[in-house]
Specification:
- This protein has helices spanning 29-38, 43-69, 84-96, 111-123; strands at 15-18, 21-24, 73-76, 100-103.
- By secondary structure, it is α+β, with helices and mostly antiparallel strands.
- Helix content is 49%, strand content 12%.
- It is built from 4 helices and 4 strands; from the N terminus they run ββααβαβα.
- A hairpin with a 2-residue loop joins β1 and β2 (21-24).
- Strands 1-2 form a two-stranded antiparallel sheet.
- The longest helix is centred in the middle third of the chain and has 27 residues, at 43-69.
Length: 128
């Protein structure tokens, strides 16, 4: 979080659709970061640009899906949501755009939650 404290113009978000899936186009990211490093852009600015880019991408995909489905509730989980900057920035953005955001409070966001899910599935009746 400390390396990305300051605001910075994000890298451009590019989303594409392939066979009904929405994909974040990260292909240009390496070159953009390398160009910033070559130009001696400060690490906190590069970090902020990257995190904001990722939030922009997630938001763009979620907006597209909301338009198609009319759903506006989002569940955030997984290891990347342990990144405080990413998580808090994404929650703020989604809530400002009238999404309902659900996230773990009593169950860990990462691998600790997997065990709970496995225990739940293990105790579930067999599927026929």
């Amino acid at each position: 979080l400390a390396a990305a404290e300051r605001e910075a113009t994000p890298y451009p978000a590019r989303i594409r659709e392939e066979q009904g899936l929405y994909l974040i186009d990260s292909a240009p990211m390496g070159a953009l970061i390398a160009a910033d490093l070559a130009a001696q852009v400060a690490t906190p600015i590069i970090a902020r640009r990257f995190h904001t880019w990722l939030v922009d991408c997630f938001h763009a995909v979620l907006e597209t899906l909301r338009q198609q489905t009319q759903l506006s509730t989002v569940v955030l989980s997984g290891g990347c949501m342990q990144n405080k900057l990413l998580f808090e920035t994404l929650v703020d953005r989604l809530e400002r755009h009238r999404f309902t955001v659900l996230a773990g409070e009593q169950v860990p966001m990462n691998d600790g939650g997997i065990a709970l899910g496995q225990a739940f599935i293990g105790g579930a009746p067999p599927c026929v």
